[in-house]
Design a protein that fits this description.
11 strands; alpha/beta; two-stranded antiparallel ribbon; 9-stranded mixed sheet; TIM Barrel; single chain; globular; 219 residues
Length: 219
């Protein structure tokens, strides 16, 4: 297998930087336009399972983003709203997120790989959500990445449970997400917008209440 390891280094994100998450591939030219518009980083998607790879981050796209001067982090696609989390799904999705990040994209170990928690089926037990998140965490952690969690809508868990019952140390708040007790957030998502015909969600970096920040790859 060819060595797809990306250029660059893993770095802690400085506070107060503007970036975006986007659910569509970007060309090198588009990446440069985003950089020119003042964005410092990009968050792109990786799939849950092998047959859902269309439109996800690739090695070539990642090289284009980094070359344009954008730092990069991956987040995994979540299931459709109303999904039911389980321990087995957490392990399955977490393992594939790490495998895809390493073998398809070439992302270096030691950086954040984000779990998207949102849209959980009403009535799901908190314990099932916790079990899913913990299984995902350990799969990604074991593979050498640093697990982070995007906290969206319908997460079932309370702010206290999000901190006390999960092993994550990196939290990203959706524009419509709840709080996380004690630690707080390292990324804050803002309301969707459009730039050059591309729909995106703006994000801002910050140090959380414990002084920690997101970990990304950058040139």
């Amino acid at each position: 297998m060819a060595d797809l390891t990306l250029p660059g280094r893993v770095q802690a994100a400085a506070a107060g930087l503007s970036g975006f998450d986007v659910n569509s591939p970007l060309t090198a030219e588009q990446a440069q336009s985003f950089k020119n518009a003042g964005y410092a980083f990009c968050i792109r998607y990786v799939p849950r399972v092998p047959n859902l790879q269309a439109g996800n981050l690739t090695n070539a796209e990642a090289v284009g983003l980094l070359t344009a001067g954008l730092a990069l982090m991956p987040v995994q696609h979540v299931s459709l709203p109303g999904w039911n989390p389980t321990t087995n799904l957490g392990s399955l999705y977490g393992n594939y997120a790490a495998t895809y990040a390493k073998q398809i994209v070439g992302l270096p170990a030691g950086m954040n790989l984000w779990c998207d928690l949102e849209g959980v089926a009403p009535g799901t037990s908190a314990q099932n959500v916790i079990a899913y998140c913990q299984a995902w965490y350990y799969a990604v952690h074991t593979a050498g990445y640093v697990p982070g969690i995007y906290v969206g809508y319908d997460v079932i868990l309370t702010p206290a449970q999000l901190y006390d019952e999960l092993s994550f140390q990196h939290y990203w708040r959706a524009y419509n997400g709840p709080e996380v007790d004690t630690r707080g957030f390292q990324l804050i998502q803002q309301v969707e917008k459009t730039l050059d015909g591309i729909t995106l969600d703006p994000d801002i970096t910050q140090n959380d209440n414990m002084g920690d920040s997101a970990l990304w790859v950058t040139l």
